[in-house]
Design goal:
Number of domains: 1
Order of helices and strands: EHEHEHHEEEHEEEE
CATH superfamily: q2cbj1_9rhob like domain
Radius of gyration: 16 Å
Strand order of the largest sheet: 2-8-5-10-4-3
Strand content: 15-25%
CATH topology: Jelly Rolls
Largest sheet: 6 strands, antiparallel
Structural class: alpha+beta
Number of strands: 10
Length: 241
Amino acid sequence: MRHSADFLPWRAIGTGAGQNSTMGRLDFSDLERDGWTAIPGLLTAGEAEVLARQCAELLTTVDAERQGDKRVGGTRRACDVLHRVRDAGALFDAPEITAAVASLLGPDTAWPVRDVAFRCPQPGFGNQALHADEMAIEHAGECWAVTAIVALCDFAPDNGATAVVPGSHHRPDLQRRAGRLDLGRDEVTLCGKAGTAFVFSAHLLHRGTLNRSDHPRPALQAQWGRRPRHLTPGPPGAQRG
């Protein structure tokens, strides 16, 4: 398995949130070829920490619980973050994010984010089976949905960071058999500093890896699409990451 840090020198390299210095340097040609891209510096480390804490607080009381939340267990989850955390929507309206989404879904329409969830695999959990967040494509070049994961801590090889199979968004044969495949040699682990956004085709095969660290691995997961559809929670029976 490879790690995305090996790829960052030729990807979009930012210099921190709020400085607007990344937009002129973003190159999304990798999205068509590989199915994913990294946008570093969408948040500062401090901003990511605050957002992680705000999301975690949604799960502290039964009174605040919403349908779809998961307060205990291997992967904690808070749903409907767009309407529960102030300014969460503004994060996904960032021009770097919207440009990446438009490069996959098409530039002629504004694609509002439709779902945002907080996911936090605990130590010893994660380890999903390979899956896609959208149904298999029927025609070459199709993209019906886009997923973004914003790291709210450093994503590292040992803390359950998401792994992807580059190019699999073009392979409906693999997408239909995702849960039965072993493509470990082809996987790239999405490693990056807190505040990095990873944007990928929802047809891309990916999985949460095992969190072998001593700390939770918080992140936000968002999705855009051409038709109404909630975030796919992961393959049936898998330890969700």
